[in-house]
## 1
Amino acid sequence: MGTYSPRGGLTFPVGAPKTLGSIGVISQSGGLSTDIIKRGQWRGLRFSGLVTIGNSADVKPHELLEYYFSDPETRAVGLYIEDIRDGKSFVEVLRNHPTPKPVVVLKGGRTDDGRLAAASHTGALAGDDKAWDALALQFPLSMATTVDEFIDALLALQHFTFQRTIVALNPRMPSRCLAMVAAQACWVQISFRCTN
C-alpha cells in the first residue's frame, strides 16, 4: 500500500491521524496496516511512521528496523511479519544497534492454515515459531498473537519509557526469586536494595 508518515504529511488511509507519535510500524500487509492505523487511532495510538513492504522484494524488514532504531521520534517498533528471508541481518540489527528499542511482533502464519494463507499472500515460507520465541528471550522483543494484543503492547510502550534496570526495596527471598524470573522474561535487570 505504501508509507504513512505524520511528520511528512504522507498517508494512504483516508483520515489517518496527522499528529506525530512515537510508534514505528513495519508491515508485510497493506490491508492489515490500514486496520492497525485505524484501530490504533480509535484507541489513542500515535505513529512516528508506518511502512508496508509486502514480500520485501526491495526494502527488507531489518533495514526499516534499523531506521526506526535510529529515529529519535520513535520509542518502540511494531512488526507484522510473515517471513524474514535475511534472518541473520535482522538479528544483527537487534544485537548490534547502538540504540535498540522494544519491538512487538505480530507473526502471520503461526498455524498450518496460517502458513498456507501467508504463502498465498506474500509468497512467504512461514517458518517455525521457535526461532521467534528464542529471539524474544534474548532481545527486547515480545510476541503478540492478535491485532488487539499488538496494539495493547504498542500503547503501553507509547506511554512508558523502557528501562532496563529497576530497583526493588527490601524484598524477601520468595519475592526476590519471583521478581528475578519475571524480570528476565521482560529483559530487565533488578537491583536489590535493603533499607535497614
Note: The helical segments are 30-43, 61-70, 87-96, 112-122, 130-138, 147-159, 173-185.
## 2
Amino acid sequence: MFPAPAPRTPTPPPPACARPSGRASRRPATETTLAERRRRIARDPLGLRRALSDRLLPGLVAAMALLAALTLAGAQGAARLAERWQEGAAAAVTVQVPDPTEARMARALALLRAHPAVASADAVGEERIAELLRPWLGERPALPLPGVIELRLAAADASLSALGARLAEAVPGAELEAHGVWVARLTALVRSVAGVSLAVLALVAGVSAAVVAVATRAGLAARRDAIGILHDLGATGSDIAGRFSRRVAGLAALGALLGALLAVPALAALAALAAPLTGGTAHWSVEALGGLPWLSLAALPPAAGLIGWLTAQATVRRWLRHLP
C-alpha cells in the first residue's frame, strides 16, 4: 500500500487593503479629466474654438488681405512712377529751329542760356536726331530736319510764355514746346489710379466685413443653447459680444498677417519687373525689397482685426436683441 499524500495547506486570501480596486484606479484619471474640462470651460465657456473655425475665416481674410496689399502697392508704385515722370517731363523743354544754320542756332542758344529760368541748354546733334527718327523715317530722311535744342528748367513750374515770344522774335520760326499737356494727362491718370485703388480697398473691407458677419452668425447658431443658458444666468450682452469679438478679431488679424506675408514675394517680383521704368535693372535683388510698402503691409493685420472686432460686436448685439 502506498502512503497517503499529505494534505495541502490552503493559501490565505490577500488582505483587503492589498486588493486592486477598479474604482480606486480609475479615480485619479477621472479627476484629472474633469479638472482639465473645467479649466477648458472656464477659458472658453461658449465653446467658440469649435464654433468659429480657425481655418476657414483666416483663409478668407488672407485672400482679402492679399488683394488689399496688391492694390496698395500698385497705387504707391503708380504714384512714384508718375512723380518721377512728372519731374522729368515738366523740367524738360524742346526748342525746334527751322533752317538750323550756325548763326541761328548760336543766337537761340545764347538767348536761352541767358534766361534765369533755364538751367541748361544744349543742341542735339544730327546723329542723335537721325537715330530718334530712324524708326519712322528710315535711315536717310528726305525731308529737311530742324535743329533741336534741349532745355532743362531750373524750376518745373517756370512760366515759358515770355521766353517763347522772345525766342520767336530773335530767331524767326523757332518754336518752344513744353510738355504741360502730357504732365496734365499723367496727373489725371495718377488720380484715376488712386481713386480706383480707394474703391477696391472699400470693396475689400466690405467683403471682409460680410465674411466676418456670416462666420459670426454661424457661430451664434452653433452655440445658441449655451448662449441662452449664460444669458439666463445673468451674462450681459457686452460679455457675450466681447468674447465673440475677441475671437473673431484674433482670427481676422491672423489671416491678414498670412495674406501680407504671401504678398511680399509677389510684390518683390513686380518691383523687379518695373525697375527699368525707374532707371533700374530687371532682376531680383535686396533693393527691390526696400521699395515695398512695408508700412501698409504692417497696417493690414491691425486693420483686419479692427474690422473683425467691430463687425462681430454689431452682429452679436443685434442677434441678442432677438432672444426671448
Note: The mean pLDDT is 76.
